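Assess this one:
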Amino acid sequence: MTQQRIVLVTGPSGAGRSTAIRVLEDLGFEAIDNLPMGLLLRLLEGPARERPMALGLDARNRDFSTIGFIELAAKLRRMADVDLATLYLDCSDEVLLRRFSETRRRHPVAANASPETGVMQEKELLAPIREIADTLIDTSPLNVHQLRQEVERWFAPQSGRHLVVSVESFSYKRGLPRGLDMVFDCRFLANPYWQPDLRAEDGRNPDVARYVQSDANYAPFFERVVDLLTHLLPAYRAEGKAHLSVAFGCTGGQHRSVATAEAVAKALAEGGQQVAIRHREMERRSLNVRPD
C-alpha cells in the first residue's frame, strides 16, 4: 500500500511557519497554507498523490481549535495509507515581539490588543499542540537561511540542498519575462532567419543549431556562460536558493536564443545539475511562423 506523506506545519505567528512551508515546497512537497481543517480529510479522498504534502494550519484558520487539531492528527495517524508528521515552529516571546515591532503588524489572534497580549494568547492556545509535535524547531536564534537548513535536515536528510535551474528562451519583441535571475542577449550571433531553408525552423533543429554555433563568437560566449553558471551554482545552493532562472533572448525567440538555451541546458544537465527548459515563443507558436 502506498502511503501519502503529510506534514502538518503549525506554530505561533511570526515563528517562521510560512518560511518552513516554502522550504518544504522547494523540497518537492505540495504545499497548501491556511487550509481549513474541515477540508483536510476531503483533500485526501482518492488515490495517494505522488508528491508529499505540507499543510499549514494555525490560529488564523477560521475553524481552528486546539482540540480539533489534536483529534485530526490522531485520526490521520490511524489511517493506514497516511504517513503523518507534525512540525511545530516555536520562538521566544521576546523575539516574536521584536518581529512584530519591526514589521508593525497587528497580531492576528488579538488584532485590537497589544502584540504582547496576542503572543501570550496564541502560545496558550497552541501549548497542547506543541507537546504532541513530532518535530520542534526553535527559530529564535535562526535567520531564514539557517531555518531552511534545519527544515532540510529533518525532512530531506538524504537529498541535501536542492537547486533547480530553469533555462529559458524568449523574444525581445515581447520584452523581458518576469522573474528572471540572469539574462543573456544572443542577438549578436549569426541569424538563421536570413537563410531561406532555415527560416521556418527553430533552434531545436540540428541544422539551425549548427548554423548558430558556426559563428566565431558563439564558442567563447557559450563556454563563458557555462563556466559562470558552474562557478555560481554551488554558492547559490549554499545560500539556500531553490530555483535559478537563466534566460537567453533574441529578436523573435525562435532561432538563436532557442539553440543557445538548448546547448546550455544540456551542458548543465551533463554536469549533474537539475535542469528544466522552456521556450516561451515556442509555447505561443501555432501554425504561423514568427520570424526571428
